[in-house]
Design a protein that fits this description.
Elements: H1 8-13, H2 20-28, H3 51-63, E1 68-71, H4 76-91, E2 97-100, H5 113-122, E3 127-131, H6 138-146, E4 150-154, E5 168-170, H7 186-203, H8 206-209, H9 221-230, H10 237-251, H11 257-265, H12 275-292, H13 296-303, H14 307-341, E6 351-354, H15 363-374, E7 378-384, E8 387-393, H16 400-410, E9 417-420, E10 424-429, H17 434-450
Parallel strand pairs: 1-2, 1-3, 3-4, 4-5, 6-7
Antiparallel strand pairs: 7-8, 8-10, 9-10
Helix pairs in contact: 3-7, 4-7, 4-9, 4-13, 5-6, 7-9, 9-10, 9-12, 11-14, 12-13, 12-14, 13-14, 14-15, 16-17
Amino acid sequence: MLTRELDRELFESYSDDIPLILKRVYAARSVSESQLSMALPGLLKPSFDQLNIALDLLEKGILEDRRILIVGDFDADGATASAVAIKALRLMGAKHVDFLVPNRFKHGYGLSPEIVQEAKTDKDPNLIITVDNGISSNEGAALARSLGIDVIITDHHLPPKVLPEANSIINPNLRGCDFPSKNLAGVGVCFYLFSALKTHLAGKGYFDAHNIQIPDLRELLDLVALGTVADVVKLDQNNRILVNEGIKRIRQKLCSKGILAILELTKRPIETLQASDLGFTVAPRINAAGRLSDISQGIRCLLSEDMNDARRYAQTLEEFNIKRREEQTRMQDEALAIVEGQTIDESQFAIVLYDESWHEGIVGIVAGKLKETYQCPCAVFAKSGSALKGSIRSIPDVHIKDLLDLVDRDNPGLIDKFGGHAMAAGLALPPESFESFSEAFSEAIKKHLEG
């Protein structure tokens, strides 16, 4: 049993209303009393690189009635971030705001050249704002700029060595960025950007000059809480404040009608809502749309102003989720059967699987289940057009994004593209490269773990 040494000075500093047993626990873990506060004033102040550039572009976009297009990701973090951006811009007087989310089956991930070209043709934006994506979209950002479109990238994924040539990049994980928390979800980054924009515009007298009520962006915290929980980012103090405040608003029904409709449909008690209800009830239904079809249904559900519209979208999401569960069960059973047939033992350093019948929208869930079962990094692939699309879930000892950097460096041309975090990543590769990738990936993990 591990016994932690008590920090006596810290123990004595706690106020009398903290129970003695909790004082001992906190002092043994070096938790200060200020860290226990979940109040909004405890939020970190925005201190992102390139923030002023983004604020000037957004101010210009609003004042000149420019066409602003939000390009999100096809998961719950991306959906909530898209909704936050759209709502915030409209509250601040932007007249031409629209969104376009890549379809994973048609465009792939991020601000790809394909999605930029479609945006130019169908929406003709002056400004593109990515939310929860874009940090690896070098080609797409370059194409947008060449077409005369300004680009603001907001993302939380780990940056590549060569950054996109956007006008501004807002990402706490940029090298040199001094924002203290590196754990914001995509929706958290987005919320910070528009909170800063509100302060920026208020300081210039914009709201008074245009007879616009200064927006209370606390009304977006339900969406921030949902996206933060859904993306399973680390709940450091800053994220706990965001989630706590968002949950309080949902319990008071001061939230998106889409969230209320999903909770109503699933018979979850709103007044006693917990973070687990967001993570295991609301988020999977929004994610299901992005996994099987188009996350736009989830975004429209979250943006619904009419409760009947919200209920209709919620029912559509429920139907997607039922299909997702059926497909997930089939794929998990097949994946487990394959692994069991391979006689996996304790010397196994990684699991890499592919089946041409598997659904690319479900591979991430299956990889996660395999990782939990076998406690090693797991990559699961499905056919996507002429390529293989894969999701990887890792263990604490293996930073999977860094490891993919290594595999890509040592095997040029093996991987078409990839991106992600320490614990999760996505990638694409040619079908003929699957066996070579499997060997290179497993060998890299083996070398890493053996030191």
